[in-house]
């Protein structure tokens, strides 16, 4: 069951005025929303966020071209969270706050993940709140960026990916498939994977294919054409060329 309601929205060019019985965090990745709370008005943009405490009257109007993360936080749920008291302190008063580049980049990444994997809204919301709590409680912007990278990189479980790859070496393997195993968007998975391993996902897949092939070349009597098929090459010629480039020896000589 979801603790939070987190949505990526486009706030329309329509004036809305209301109150609600939950706290609300608003962060934009692009566009502008005019928002006022109890007489204090500002613009929510990629550089300016907003915290709206429960039961505080507010009005807003978007520009119709914004992309805005809206997080609803039920007050009753905070007591059950490990850092609930720190999160509650964020909403001790209505406030607008500056969004540093590191937090903006994390917001972009999490908005993409939310659209890719809406079932992870709880995890994404908690990560967003942790980052915001660090920033507003005097953490450095660099620490905010490191938090986002660390938490996302934790989901790049190479052992799990290797096990999946070894079962699908004969198949076409796409970055989108690998990203979905880690609940990340393809673009973000690609950048995180390269930072973690030093190679692109497809280069890693190619390496995995060839290393598996070398075991078969050296320790089996299967034909080179059969081995090529088992590890996902379209023909023996392309397999032999890739093998020679990687190991600096042909598969027939290696055998």
UniProtKB/TrEMBL annotation:
<keyword id="KW-0804">Transcription</keyword>
<dbReference type="GO" id="GO:0003700">
    <property type="term" value="F:DNA-binding transcription factor activity"/>
</dbReference>
<keyword id="KW-0238">DNA-binding</keyword>
<protein>
    <submittedName>
        <fullName>AraC family transcriptional regulator</fullName>
    </submittedName>
</protein>
<keyword id="KW-0805">Transcription regulation</keyword>
<dbReference type="InterPro" id="IPR018060">
    <property type="entry name" value="HTH_AraC"/>
</dbReference>
<dbReference type="GO" id="GO:0043565">
    <property type="term" value="F:sequence-specific DNA binding"/>
</dbReference>
<dbReference type="Pfam" id="PF02311">
    <property type="entry name" value="AraC_binding"/>
</dbReference>
<feature type="domain" description="HTH araC/xylS-type">
    <location>
        <begin position="159"/>
        <end position="255"/>
    </location>
</feature>
<dbReference type="InterPro" id="IPR050204">
    <property type="entry name" value="AraC_XylS_family_regulators"/>
</dbReference>
<dbReference type="Pfam" id="PF12833">
    <property type="entry name" value="HTH_18"/>
</dbReference>
<dbReference type="InterPro" id="IPR009057">
    <property type="entry name" value="Homeodomain-like_sf"/>
</dbReference>
<dbReference type="InterPro" id="IPR003313">
    <property type="entry name" value="AraC-bd"/>
</dbReference>
<dbReference type="InterPro" id="IPR037923">
    <property type="entry name" value="HTH-like"/>
</dbReference>
